[in-house]
Specification:
single chain, alpha+beta, 6-stranded antiparallel β-sheet, globular
Length: 187
């Protein structure tokens, strides 16, 4: 990506395309046919973003990776737009600045992505299953996201545990609790 001078975000949202807030890029998410792991990129309206943020990647493990592990919560049958939820478990999001460069990781409450919510330890045990290299999206982005989760595994693990600690006495449906933990990319 560096040799081509094109960072993550322009590979997902081509500069010539009309960028639409809330729209998933790619449109039906990037899903690995071999692992079921997935990701999508989107952005909130400017007044709902952090200063300097363009948007963020949401990353998910497939629900079938958690066979035998009961979810702490299940998704609503349909989201506010009438969309049926995916059989997926959100574990981390990666924010990017206006130049398309990743800046920090964060975790969200269950209602944010309307997915199956699994306890931290169950997710951490399965982080190595996040492999989207063969997903239906830019191969360099797929490879980079797969590698980033592996390289930053310790930090992601800490953020997922902090997510659960933030919810210890709180509701998974509390709309005042959206971002539960965050931290800059640290090697």
């Amino acid at each position: 990506m560096t040799s081509q001078g094109v960072s993550l975000v322009p590979r997902v949202v081509p500069p010539e395309a009309e960028f639409r807030q809330w729209t998933h890029y790619p449109q039906k998410d990037a899903i690995s046919p071999s692992t079921g792991a997935r990701w999508f990129y989107h952005a909130h309206p400017p007044e709902q973003r952090e200063a300097g943020e363009h948007g963020h990647f949401h990353m998910f493990l497939p629900l079938n990776a958690f066979e035998g592990e009961p979810p702490r919560a299940k998704p609503e049958p349909k989201n506010t737009k009438g969309k049926t939820p995916a059989n997926a478990v959100h574990f981390i999001a990666l924010s990017c600045n206006l130049q398309g460069v990743p800046t920090h990781w964060f975790t969200t409450n269950r209602w944010v992505t309307n997915e199956y919510f699994m306890d931290a330890e169950a997710i951490v045990e399965r982080l190595d299953r996040f492999d989207v290299r063969d997903a239906n999206a830019d191969p360099l982005v797929n490879g980079w996201l797969t590698a980033a989760v592996a390289v930053f595994r310790q930090q992601i693990t800490e953020l997922i545990h902090r997510r659960d600690a933030a919810l210890a006495d709180q509701s998974l449906e509390d709309r005042t609790l959206e971002i539960l933990s965050s931290g800059p990319l640290e090697i």
